[in-house]
């Protein structure tokens, strides 16, 4: 220990240093008593060393006003820094005695072999680029096709799109549903082209990160004095609005929210509408409204001085152009909690998560595992750890995020969280004055969390014995046994293959589900069984898909790839109904022309379309051609795994049945308008259920899926 201190003293003597203390920030409003943690930053004149982190996350007041034109994007080589060993020691000494701090520094930095082993294990259990990319692609495709047909804009958020879970591990599905029909503004500019909108209201006592939403009709800011003249809007105001202490009519409930739904629930002062146990998973729908401009109360984030250029100036500008959401969540300490809405930067957080390196992504995922299986506290959530990670990346050189130092980075984040817990202040990444611990962390919880975080730091790699996710505890327990490692590795590899297959499967099933429940339900019902009108409706949707360049903030390529997944189903349905008209036409030339045209569309319908074309050949008596095409498709079906998406989502198959049919069946559906091209044997299979007990849901279905 004395040698370590002597070495550090010698390094300080050789490197002239300067100290800079962060100024205290006064937190206004209802959280005035909470203070941000303050660390002393020591900067050496020597360049090229690795900087772990230099401050707690609150930006000095002098740096807040710095303009983007002079904002620094320097690299590590321009930043003077203390050696990593000394920085770790100085941070640990704030929470431990000298001997313990010295031992922890040596344990973390001198155990590179264990660091590499740990990285490889995290990668093996599915926290890797392949799984992360597959989750992202599936989620983006899903939200594009859903948004294309929904009145709300849908964004997937959380672990389902970030891929922050081990292969085979259960995870929730989180999404934001933004009602674009009710725009939000900080300032009313010019005449409005819509009926109802909302104006952001912030008062001196409004907590940082929260707003009120005042009702605006055309250009009129509504107050209680206008109520007698607002007869047409009376029901809306009575149902969704309240009058605040200044007489403003403000929104206090989410519009058209199904609060009384039997299968959905909403916790008080929580923004998410929860769907529990939807085919074994939980879904959180966060209803939101959007302001398309960056909030003035978050300008500090745009002008923040970033020593290491993360995020870059170009990314900052891109993220600020996305505006922000407001979600129904009041500040826990506010007397007007039911009237407040919280500013949400979910789109910005999502894009920042996409930009993470592999090591940073692994770091956050492991922190979530530790939080869920070791810390187990409602006071610290995955959002707190995400905030912690963002500050760590922003305030540190990219050099520390290496394979061998993954565990060091994780412990550095835990150290930062421990500092926040001690100070009872966790700064919001976009609005640092907003304390994410406000109203949740009392003295007993603070003491318990400090103890758990310290114990987690002292346990080192032994903490992995408590992590069951991905069987990480088994990997650590049997790390000296090659045979046991091979067994675990084989099992993890199998789970990863299954997880990747599931992500691919979803990219096939979701478009089919959208086609069945959105396109067919809308187009077929509106046509009232008029085949020509139905074809016209399908043509309209087809042209709309082809003409659409982008959906929400997605790129042209992402939009094209997602919407193109709907085309095979539309082409097959178009071809089938054109074929029906063809075989019923008495004019042979018209008949042949239509059949030839339907064949061109059938070939665009992938395997399902080609199988349906066989039924057309059978219906018109071309049995030899029918047999030849069946032989051709049999080879393709054996090469291409497929499944019946209708049965997966209708939910009337057992779990065991689902697992086996994924690989062996292909979904082909027939509408009632397509009976003329449906072989008699298939008609029998489709209608044999009539006369026996079936659920009301299946009786009312407009089509019946067939397995071939």
Quick structural gist:
This protein has 708 residues and is α+β, with helices and mostly antiparallel strands. It has a domain of 213 residues. It contains 27 helices and 17 strands.
Provide an overview of this structure:
Its cofactor is Mg(2+). GO terms for molecular function: ATP binding; metal ion binding; nucleotidyltransferase activity. Residues 7-16 have a biased composition (Basic and acidic residues). 48% of the residues lie in helices and 12% in strands. By secondary structure, it is an alpha+beta fold. It has a domain at 495-707. Strands 3, 4, 5, 6, 7, 8, 11, 12, 13, 14 and 15 form an eleven-stranded mixed β-sheet that branches. Strands 1-2 form a two-stranded antiparallel ribbon. Strands 9-10 form a two-stranded antiparallel ribbon. The longest helix is centred in the last third of the chain and has 46 residues, at 482-527. The protein is flat, with a radius of gyration of 30 Å. Mean pLDDT is 81; it is low at 1-81, 648-665 and 691-708.
Overview features:
metal-binding; eleven-stranded mixed β-sheet; nucleotide-binding; ATP-binding; alpha+beta; 17 strands; 12% strand; 708 residues; Mab-21-like_nuc_Trfase; two-stranded antiparallel ribbon
Helices and strands, with pairings:
Elements: H1 2-14, E1 17-21, E2 40-44, H2 61-64, H3 84-92, H4 98-109, H5 112-124, H6 129-149, E3 153-157, H7 159-162, E4 173-178, E5 184-185, E6 196-201, E7 210-217, E8 220-221, H8 234-240, E9 241-243, E10 249-251, E11 264-266, E12 272-278, E13 281-291, H9 299-303, H10 313-320, E14 324-327, E15 341-344, H11 346-354, H12 358-375, H13 382-394, H14 406-423, H15 443-459, H16 472-477, H17 482-527, H18 531-547, H19 556-564, H20 567-583, H21 588-602, H22 606-619, H23 623-639, H24 645-650, H25 655-661, E16 667-671, H26 680-687, H27 696-699, E17 703-707
Parallel strand pairs: 4-13, 5-6
Antiparallel strand pairs: 1-2, 3-4, 6-7, 7-8, 7-15, 9-10, 11-12, 12-13, 13-14, 14-15, 16-17
Helix pairs in contact: 3-4, 6-17, 6-19, 12-13, 12-14, 13-14, 14-15, 17-18, 18-20, 20-21, 20-22, 22-23
């Amino acid at each position: 220990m004395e040698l370590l201190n002597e070495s550090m003293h010698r390094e300080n003597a050789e490197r002239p240093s300067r100290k800079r203390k962060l100024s205290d920030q006064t937190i206004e409003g209802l959280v005035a008593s909470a203070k941000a943690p303050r660390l002393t930053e020591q900067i050496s004149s020597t360049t090229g060393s690795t900087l772990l982190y230099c401050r707690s996350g609150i930006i000095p007041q002098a740096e807040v006003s710095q303009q983007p034109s002079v904002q620094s994007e320097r690299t590590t080589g321009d930043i003077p820094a203390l050696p990593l060993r000394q920085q770790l020691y100085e941070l640990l000494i704030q929470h431990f005695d000298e001997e313990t701090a010295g031992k922890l520094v040596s344990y973390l930095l001198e155990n590179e072999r264990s660091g590499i082993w740990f990285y490889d294990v995290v990668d093996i259990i599915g926290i890797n680029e392949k799984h992360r990319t597959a989750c992202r692609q599936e989620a983006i495709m899903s939200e594009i096709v859903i948004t294309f047909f929904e009145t709300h804009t849908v964004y997937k958020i959380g672990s389902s799109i970030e891929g922050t879970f081990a292969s085979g591990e259960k995870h929730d599905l989180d999404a934001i549903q933004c009602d674009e029909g009710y725009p939000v503004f900080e300032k009313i500019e010019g005449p409005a082209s819509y009926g109802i909108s909302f104006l952001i209201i912030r008062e001196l006592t409004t907590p940082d990160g929260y707003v009120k939403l005042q009702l605006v009709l055309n250009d009129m800011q509504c107050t209680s004095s206008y109520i007698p003249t607002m007869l047409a809007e009376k029901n809306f105001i009575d149902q969704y609005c309240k009058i605040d202490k200044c007489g403003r009519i403000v929104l206090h409930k989410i519009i058209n929210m199904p609060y009384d739904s039997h299968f959905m629930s909403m916790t008080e002062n929580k923004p998410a509408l929860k769907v529990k146990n939807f085919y074994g998973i939980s879904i959180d729908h966060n209803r939101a409204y959007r302001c398309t401009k960056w909030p003035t109360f978050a300008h500090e984030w745009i002008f923040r001085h970033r020593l290491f250029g993360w995020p870059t100036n170009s990314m900052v500008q891109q993220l600020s152009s996305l505006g922000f959401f407001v979600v129904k969540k009041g500040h826990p300490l506010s007397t007007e909690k039911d009237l407040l809405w919280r500013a949400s930067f979910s789109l910005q957080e999502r894009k920042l998560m996409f930009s993470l390196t592999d090591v940073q992504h692994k770091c956050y995922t492991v922190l979530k595992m530790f939080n869920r299986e070791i810390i187990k506290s409602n006071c610290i959530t995955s959002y707190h750890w995400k905030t912690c990670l963002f500050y760590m990346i922003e305030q540190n050189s990219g050099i520390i995020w290496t394979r061998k130092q993954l565990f060091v980075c994780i412990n550095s984040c835990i150290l930062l969280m421990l500092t926040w817990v001690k100070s009872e202040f966790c700064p919001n990444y976009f609005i640092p004055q907003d304390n994410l611990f406000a109203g949740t962390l009392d003295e007993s919880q603070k003491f318990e969390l400090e103890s758990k975080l310290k114990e987690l730091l002292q346990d080192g790699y032994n903490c992995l014995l408590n992590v069951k996710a991905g069987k990480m505890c088994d990997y650590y327990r049997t790390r000296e046994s090659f045979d046991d490692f091979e067994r675990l590795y084989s099992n993890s590899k199998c789970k990863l293959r299954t997880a990747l297959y599931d992500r691919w499967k979803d990219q096939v099933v979701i478009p089919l589900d959208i086609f069945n429940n959105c396109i067919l339900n809308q187009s077929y019902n509106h046509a009232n069984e008029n085949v020509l009108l139905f074809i016209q409706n399908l043509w309209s949707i087809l042209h709309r898909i082809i003409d659409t360049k982008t959906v929400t903030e997605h790129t042209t390529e992402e939009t094209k790839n997602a919407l193109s997944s709907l085309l095979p189903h539309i082409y097959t349905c178009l071809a089938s109904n054109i074929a029906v008209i063809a075989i019923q036409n008495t004019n042979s030339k018209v008949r042949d022309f239509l059949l030839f045209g339907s064949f061109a569309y059938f070939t665009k319908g992938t395997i399902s379309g080609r199988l349906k074309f066989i039924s057309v050949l059978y219906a018109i008596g071309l049995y030899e051609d029918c047999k030849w095409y069946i032989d051709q498709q049999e080879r393709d079906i054996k090469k291409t795994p497929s499944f019946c998406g209708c049965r997966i989502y209708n939910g009337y198959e057992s779990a065991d049945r689902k697992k086996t049919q994924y690989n062996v069946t292909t979904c082909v559906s027939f509408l009632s308008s397509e009976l003329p091209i449906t072989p008699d044997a298939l008609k029998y299979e489709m209608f044999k259920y009539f006369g026996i007990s079936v659920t009301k849901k299946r009786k009312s279905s407009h089509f019946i899926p067939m397995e071939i």
